[in-house]
Amino acid sequence: MTEQRLQGLQYPIPYVKPSITDLEIAYVNDAIRTGWGPRCYDYINRLEADFAKWLGVKHAVATSSCTGALHMGLHALGIGSGDEVILADTNWIASVAPVVHLGATPVFVDILEDSWCLDPAQVEAAITSRTKAILAVHLYGNLCEMDRLRKLASDHGIPLIEDAAEAIGSVWKGARAGSMGKFGVFSFHGTKTVTTGEGGMFATSDNALYERVRSLNNHGRHPAQTKQFWADEIGFKYRMSNLDAALGCAQLERVEELVARKREILAGYRKRLSAVQQISLNPEPADGINGAWMPTAVFVSEAGVTREALLAAFKACQIDARVFFYPLSDQPMFSPVQSNTRARDISSRAINLPSFYDMTETDLDRVVSTLLSFVKD
Ligand SMILES: *Cc1c(COP(=O)(O)O)cnc(C)c1O
Questions:
Q1: Fewer Cβ within 10 Å of end Cβ, the chain: N or C?
Q2: Which residue of 74, 101, 163 sits with most ligand 1 atoms within 8 Å of its CB, as the best mutation to test the pocket?
Q3: Which domains are present in the chain?
């Protein structure tokens, strides 16, 4: 790599990459040596306690994925056949898959022009007597309009749920993303700011909901159940391993540092593009913090860019940029919602930019110069 740099050759720039230090290695080594028998849950218990404390909620349940955490949470709320769940059309498939698995109907609404998160006015218009949840996904670290969504949810008596998989470190008016709804879910997938390779977290301050999800995650065996091999109901098995939890404990100790570096990279892009009117980046609310998981550039329509041209240019420069999420409703399992014009339009003129802990200023320059090649005078 260094030789390539010296020669001025282009080396590949990945889009994300975890930051692993001696701390992570030490914890995982300890877990693999000692974390068995009576100690087989030590790191899991510690991660759950530390995470709940850091997030500012009463309880956390470690899971094997964010998708699993969401599946159990929705199931615990009793969501099933005939029910509707409102979410933004612009989303990763993981946010909607559990809704479908439970037999409920996803209702896709349009996004806001600036935050790319669900539009509260459209949420309100989509509420029916069958609406059983509003799923607020904080896209790319950007925050949903939580005040308006919380008011809507409480006015209509509908639970507001946060998918904060992309928003670890994001803060809305002093409250961390994932701590404001009935429950919040997080992902520790290898691409996320805090990672265990695969993994997730369910977080809530609702005692009863916590007890239910904890028991659901243990095949429906209630913690107070004393009979062996006895299930009280059909549950799930989305548990995190102690080895993964050891990695998670180390990453969580470094969470402020990991988020700060993400924010520094987004700021680096912002500084370099500040004079460019044709590109906007992830917004940050005046009284909030964007955890900056995924710096994303959206071109104005007049720039005339296409997703395909952007991808091709980045590929030619060996930069692993990624497409902005396609509308979920366009995918073959659903029916296109033509009226979600912003979700359809923005994704066609936007691109996710690389951001990882060890990214250099030279890397940032290279990404930005590729972006600038699309800017018209
Ligand atoms: C990554 C992600 C998920 C899924 O996380 P897994 O841990 O892979 O299940 C869910 N929702 C959003 C918004 C994500 O970005």
A1: C
A2: 163
A3: 2-17+255-372 (3.90.1150.10), 22-253 (3.40.640.10)
Half-sphere exposure of 158 (CA within 13 A, CB side): 27
66 lines ligand 1 (CB under 6 A): yes
Q: Name the H helices within the chain.
A: 2-6, 22-34, 42-55, 66-76, 97-101, 120-126, 146-156, 207-216, 242-253, 255-273, 307-316, 341-346, 361-372
Pocket lining: 162 vs ligand 1, CB cutoff 6 Å: no
In the structure, what pLDDT confidence band is assigned to residue 1 with cuts at 50, 70 and 90? very low
Active-site residue identified among 53, 192, 227, 376: 192
Atom of ligand 1 nearest to the CA of 192: 1
Q: What is the pTM of this model?
A: 0.96
To the query of whether residue 173 is one of the catalytic residues in this protein, the response is no
Question: For the segment 309-332, what is each residue's pLDDT rounded down to a tens digit?
Answer: 999 999 999 999 999 999 999 999
Q: At what angle do helices 242-253 and 42-55 cross, to 10 degrees?
A: 40
Distance CA 119, CA 342 (A): 10
C-beta of residue 219 within 8 angstroms of C-beta of residue 231: yes
